[in-house]
Amino acid sequence: MTEHKIETPKERLNRHKAMEASAVLEKIKHDYKEPPRAMEYFYDLYERVHCKHESLHSDKAKVGTMCIQVPSEIIYALDAVPLRLCNGFYTDDEIGSDFLPSKSCPLVKATVGQFVSNNFSDKPDVIISPTTCDQKAKSGAIIESMGFSVYDMEFPRTKESHESREYWRRSVRKFTKDLSENLNTKLSKKKLKESIQKIGYAQHLYHKLNILRKNTASPILGKDMFLVTNAFFFDKIDSWIDAMKKLLEECEEMVEAKVNAASKMSPRIVYTGSPPIFPNLKIPLLIELCDAIIVADETCSSNRMFNDMVSVDEWFINDMIDSIADRYLKGCTCPIFTKNDDRKRRILDLVKDYKADGVVYQAFAGCQVYEMEQRSVLEAMQKAGVPILYIESDYSPSQSGQLTTRIEAFVESLKNRKRRQQ
Amino acid sequence: MKKIKDFINKADIRRFRFWLQLFFFVLFIYGGYFAINLGNSIPVFSCGYDKEVGGMCYFLPLQHQLARPLDVLFSVASISVLIGFVTFLLWFIVFNKAWCGYACPLGTMQDWLTGLRKKMGIRFSTYTQPQFDKLKKIKYLMLALVIFAPIGVGMGILGGEWRTAFCEICPGRMITPLFVGDVSQWSLDFSTKTAMILTSLGLIFTGLFVVGSFIKKRFFCFFCPMSAMHYIFSDAALLKLKKDGDKCTKCGDCYNVCDMQIKDIADDVKSTNILRDDCIFCMKCVAACPEDDALHVDILNMKLFTSTKGGFAKRMEMDRLEKKND
């Protein structure tokens, strides 16, 4: 007779999360046209980390980051691994709801929820909270009150001024010094240069793959691209680079053979707004189920994370740090900044560059900054004659009926428009 | 054609520039030995006090010409002044400020000093933005000195020692002849009080030139009246530095590598002509821009050198992976 064992709350939670993750993975793998073979690596990676709770970095110091503004270059150069804490689990979102106001952003709630349940396949040793949006900044303090070590890395909310550039450069210098003391590792010129170039190389691969999506027959669906970029949050960088190289090669062959991941009439979508983070890929999955294809995006879980690159004139430590700082502030199109001109420009440029037929703007209910920028982006798109759909969503699985109807209608209208234009 | 374009856009602009600068340095400083002389209307600081000069800086003849009595200056005799000026313009119009970044011996020397500092592992210093905004006006004051001091002499308001007042204080006068072993300029002129003040200023500026450009990239170019003069005519030039603001993400990569700390290059997304008065047209910004076609150098509206993702990755050595360290 087998011994009967009662599931602990933590085990139950893990089971719920694994179920949530595997349900989405199953959809991603089987509900769409056949993905590139190289995607197998990523599907497997998510299964290992999110379903089987496998640890990837047991031998390294782990630095949790609350936003993309924390420079990975510096963390890698200090022999540690950056792990992005932005969370997409509904299970964690529900737990976090007890700790934050009910109208908060689900991403922030889910992040806090994960700390409440103290449930990590790789648990961060220190948490870096760049004081970006109010909710992230405040949740840093909440997480700290739970007994975690949180470091506030001060981030300016205006980025045009000379003062903000200087302020952020100082923040990054201080962060480097403090982290190096915390990890008891000295930052060397050589290591920093290597890590800048390694991340640069990863970005270079991403860009090369992205450019392939400009083709009329795009080789890869947006949902797969989101998985690839999301994997950068937690994967071993070298494994990620290897997998990316294989994917890139395969996609290049596909372009050569004119293989289309979507169908001929599929409208091309630029995706913007609150970041799709695994397993909450709800909206991208719906869009592509409705026979559209996401060809580009402007979100911090993908394009914005990879777009701007560090350029250095003289490879001295301080120079490199300043250059890194600039890359994380100046090019950033996060809606927390006072103005959103840069984001509008970026979206319009993506629409033009990737010959998109429309834009989908997702805002998480409770993510004030994205909600507030909605109107001005809509206005800019209308002025440029670009159809746009604004969607408010959260992590709950219950909404999909209504969302499907809206997205279907939007995609249909884009198709009609396309037909008329032909 | 596409291959040639790709080759140019991926070029290692630093090496290209180093050799071109060396070529022009030899040409301007030692040209006399090779019986080369490109005349005396050259839009760079190749000092006329250097006996072997291969082409003379336009400011020395300009000051001499302007110092004529007014009635002579405004007579037919001044046709030669006009010819000198037109020659200067013709030289300039083709290459625009690239004279500064690629040909000026004083600029080249500053880059060598920068190279020396880099070898010694010392970091450069920068100005803060408010300092920058104040200091950048100095070059126009210098240009005013170049133009109005000799006119003042011609009008009889100023003494004869003001004739080439700018040259007296220009570090080029003391430094460039050094390269042919001529130290005769390294002396104070005690003939009059003014001459004494001007030549001592010359010594001080020369010291500043050496120390300044060691710690700050292109220190002197910031105050250079030739740069101010260039800027006045730069709209007419064939070579242009252009920007496509739609493609710019304001990431600041170009600003980071800019020797002249020109903020507009990164922050201004409205101007298409992005050449600013401090620009030395070294094209480092174009080489450091990771966005396709956001910055480009045009000649007669044809793209000569343009920013590309591939070129950026190659120059930053990000197009391959040297070593794994995870």
Order of helices and strands of chain B: HHHHHHHHHHHHHEHHHEEH
Question: Rg of chain A from C-alpha positions?
Answer: 21 Å
How many helical stretches of chain A?
Answer: 16
Strand count, sense and barrel status of the largest sheet of chain A are: 4 strands, parallel
Compute the number of strand runs of chain B: 3
- Strand pairing plus helix content of chain A: what structural class? alpha/beta
The main sheet of chain B comes to: 3 strands, antiparallel
State the shape of chain A: globular
The end-to-end distance of chain B, rounded to whole angstroms, is 41 Å
> Beta-sheet strand percentage of chain A?
5-15%
**What letter string, H or E per element, gives the SSE order of chain A?**
HHEHEHHEHEHHHHEHEHHHEHEH
Protein name (chain B): 4Fe-4S ferredoxin, iron-sulfur binding
Keywords (chain B): 4Fe-4S, Electron transport, Iron, Iron-sulfur, Membrane, Metal-binding, Transmembrane, Transmembrane helix, Transport
Pfam families (chain B): Fer4_10 (PF13237), Fer4_5 (PF12801)
GO cellular component, one term (chain B): plasma membrane
